[in-house]
Amino acid sequence: MPTDLSNSPVGTTVVIRGTDNRFDAPYELGAFVPAPLPKRLDLPGPVWMALSDAMTALGRLDSAASLIPNPQLVTRVATRREAIGTSALEGTFANLTDLFAAEAVSMDETDPSTPPNVREVMNYTRAADAAYDWVQERPITIPLLSSLQAVIVRGTDSDGPEAGALRERQVFIGAKNRPITEARFIPPPPGDQLTVLVDDWLDWINNESLRDSLHLLVRVALAHYQFETIHPYTDGNGRVGRLIAVLQMLIDGALTTPVLSVSDWLKDHAAEYRDHLLQVSMTGNWAPWVDFFARAVAASAEDAHRRVTGLLALREVLASEAREALPRARLAIEIADDLIAFPILTVAAAQARYGKSNQANRDAINRLCELGFLEPYSDARYDRLYWNRRVFAIIES
């Protein structure tokens, strides 16, 4: 049976009835409807310490990233690490080398040579890049959320008429091969009530007056709980919800560039992550969830700081070595400068990025191979891939 939330201090249940067609079995269950989020929250001292530690780690990370003339060099890596981690939490697994290699060969989402799991992860990177551009000038809105969800599920089993729209059917959270009566959690029913819940959630996260009464990371943690609990879409809610957490930090100014990847840490603590979300609904006690989320942010920011500083140090080494060995080879130097963000490339990808002729890019890559900056990644004769192992030693650490 689903968790009994009929006595929840932070929501109510409504009875839903139907038939589980997979098992030809009727059901009558309680769907959970969360109450509006609080505008003030009392938290114990240890949680405030965790929040302070997280903000300190975020500040160090943002300061390190701000030293980079071209922030894309590290934000590109962070977004792809987040894509891998957030997708893994939803059961889609890929690795960073496969993702970078697929992007080097083709950014075409319909390219049949790209494995479905990698294509789905690539969907997330497109959605994230669009979201980062959006929030530079606009608040989080339903059109943004729906467009992100549509991009994330594009080309998957969840693509179709419901993509990019609030769900119009009941969903159940639990093992897909088990009866609905064994679902772990049942989100609110579709319809007007769901629309109101989403509208109220948007009003809450866009309410600037809450900055005075709620700590930033408390607002992010509460917003994430509410979004996952409402579960407004048929699929992609977790990935959209975790992306929103980073967007909130960007909007608030805690991050000036999206260099934080939280999902990698959450993936390693997946059971605890899901249990904390459910426990809020059961007990109404926000403190354990806020503390857990603050620890996730602190650990992720510290990890990202190590990675950013490592990549910048490597870039300095590569740039120095390239200029010393190839003082007049401007194109080869430019490619070497960007290896921390584009550690796998093809001649065609280099031509698209840097211009020049195909032969000029081929010559530059060959010279970088001769010097050990690049080496063949695959044995394919056409569109051969080249990579720098030293970059991956840092970004996969």
What is the fold-level CATH name, i.e. the topology of the largest domain?
A: Fic-like fold
CATH architecture of the largest domain: Orthogonal Bundle
The percentage of residues in β strands lies in 5-15%
Q: Can you tell me the residue ranges where pLDDT is under 50 for at least 5 consecutive residues?
A: none
Structural classification: mainly alpha
Q: Over the alpha carbons, how many angstroms does the gyration radius reach? A: 23 Å
| Cα end-to-end separation | 41 Å
Number of helices, counting only DSSP H or I runs of 4 residues or more: 15
Arithmetic mean of pLDDT: 94
**How many domains comprise the coordinates?**
2
Shape: globular
Q: Please write the CATH class name of the largest domain.
A: Mainly Alpha
Blueprint of the fold:
Elements: E1 11-20, E2 25-34, H1 45-66, H2 72-89, H3 96-105, H4 116-134, H5 142-152, H6 192-205, H7 216-230, H8 237-252, H9 263-268, H10 270-283, H11 287-325, H12 330-337, E3 344-345, H13 347-354, H14 358-370, E4 375-376, E5 386-387, H15 389-395
Antiparallel strand pairs: 1-2, 3-5, 4-5
Quick overview:
The chain has 397 residues and is mainly alpha-helical. Helices cover 55% and strands 7% of the residues. The protein has a three-stranded antiparallel beta sheet with strand order 3-5-4.
